[in-house]
Predict the 3D structure of the following.
Amino acid sequence: MLEDRSALFMDRDGTLIVDYGYLGDPEKVELLPGVKEALTLLHQKHWMFFLLSNQSGVNRGFFTMKEVEVVNQRMVDLIGLGNNFFTEIRCAVGTPEAPCPYRKPSPKFILECLEKYRLNPKKCWMIGDRTTDVETGHNANINSILLTQEKLGTCTCPCCANFMEAYKVMTEQ
Ligand SMILES: [Mg+2]
């Protein structure tokens, strides 16, 4: 039997929090507009949440994995839906030149979670602010949403200006 709940796989920088580029400082963590509201509503609908973030800054030596985890924890605190908000978090530390197996657009993390939690791909979404996020969702055969201020004619998935718009797209099915 497949899990009945829906699941949301999320990029971090530029999707949930302001993207300052190689963020290692928890003091700079700032939720983007609509994130807390949308996640609270999805949480009430018993959605499951996963974080998939490329953090090449670790392998580039800009910050440590421990610092990434401190930033993640600060974000979880600001979301305010409990310490177990994310079912799983995966930070891919490889660089474009030397990617690790989980680096987006690899679907490896999503595919592993689909199997581990017996998720229904039709009820799963990947959301992010880059085309690599959308490709990751496509590569895993789940739904995708691109967060962007621009209207991209070439986009093959829904484009939303903010997280509350995305919430409406994800829940109208
Ligand atoms: Mg991003």
In short: The domain at 7-171 is CATH 3.40.50.1000 (Rossmann fold).
